[in-house]
Amino acid sequence: MRPREKRRSSRTRRLGLIVAVVAVVGAGGWFAGTRMQSPADAAASQQPPKAGAVTVPVEHRALTATVVAQGSLEYGSPRSLTLAGSVGASQESDEEAGAAQRVTKAPSAGSRLTEGDVLMQVNGRPVLVLRGPVPMYRTIGPGSSGDDVRQLQKALNRLGFPTGGVTGTYGQGTASAVGRWYRSKGYTAQEPTSADRQQLGQLETAVSDAQLALLTARGDGGKSEGDGESGPESKEVRRLQIKSAEKQLQLANSALASFKAGYGTKVPAGEVVFLPDFPVRVDKTKVRAGDTPDGEVAAVTSSDVVVDAVVPGADASSLREGMAVQVTTADGKEAKGVLSEIGAPGSAPEDAAGHAETGGEPETTGASGGGTSNPVPLKVTIPKPGPLAEDAGGAVTVTIEVGDSSGKVLAVPVAAVQTSAGGQARVRIERDGSVRRVEVDLGISADGLVEVKPDGGALKKGDLVVVGQ
């Protein structure tokens, strides 16, 4: 290349480089200028945006209202058992009859008892269980009468040991039925002891002696009072002797009859426990072999499993006895139950729809007004607990369905509902850039939503209701 051409090419490259640098500097200045703010612009950019209404769309859906509470799973109808007295003698000797009472076989915790079963043994004799409302309080035997005898006769008849009638009086038929019942359990009913038989013999001897004394007083062969008498004084003595002998015979016969009235097969006070219903479950045993059976010997429950729970008074106002209940354990086991008891609320709660008088206070947000109420205890019975029976003593969740909307309804969040001083419920809707109030009637509430019933077509699915600012 010629020198002249080289100088021209060099000038061209330098010019291009200068232009490129200027372009880069200019672009940097433009970018910096777009990112720079005046103090006024910077302050304005830090101001919060203008407040606007927080809205959510109206839903069209079915609602199912439930009350959910936590509770504890237990067996129902707990009852403590005590013995009404001593058991009978296991043998007929006087020494055994007066022996100390000792538990020889304790109740078995967790066992299931039906009517007629053996609860435990004391001194080798059984303590049996029967159904009846009257507690055992005495020894029942020949000559006894009353409601306790009547319920004993009914129980024996139910168990297949006829008593010859339910008379309320313990007679020979009842005694025979008692003997057969004991034998069916492998025991001997409480028969008269040797002491009883000895006393019977003594009373019978007393009657014979009295009869002989009367015959002697009357004379040989029962001669008349005047035979062989020598004077008035002797006749008076004979008359008094006869009268005394007749009195002694009368007393002897009376004592014998009274003893025989209670002589025979008996049910000792400590050998039967009456319970209101069966079957029962032995929940706890309070004695061991060798203990004296004084005081509580066991605690029993029904075979039903129950749940004790507590709900707020506002929730309790929507509950009714007999409602179906879903019971769920922590590990997912489920069973069906029935709401069997509802405690009395401490105060009248507001209804679920929020129709409560406000006493002239300004309108409040929310369907229920947020009032407080006293807790209310609930009891749920589970007739067929299934696998839940293994979790007695544990915590469970109870779910009670209290109503449904019978199909799809318009629903809004509870927070969208306002209540005026006059008790009228209303919602605010945003439409065409403005907010207006729509009066509604409230229905069922569930899952944070409440059914709304507007007049006419003032509210429809998809409308935006205001829930906050």
Automatic annotation (TrEMBL):
Region (Disordered): 86-112, 217-236, 340-376
Peptidoglycan binding-like domain span: 145-181
InterPro entries according to UniProt: Peptidoglycan-bd-like, PGBD-like_sf, PGBDSf
Signal peptide range in chain numbering: none
Name by which UniProt lists this protein: Peptidoglycan-binding protein
Bias (Basic and acidic residues): 220-236
Pfam families cross-referenced by the UniProt entry: PG_binding_1 (PF01471)
Chain segments annotated as coiled-coil in the UniProt record: none
Domain of life: Bacteria
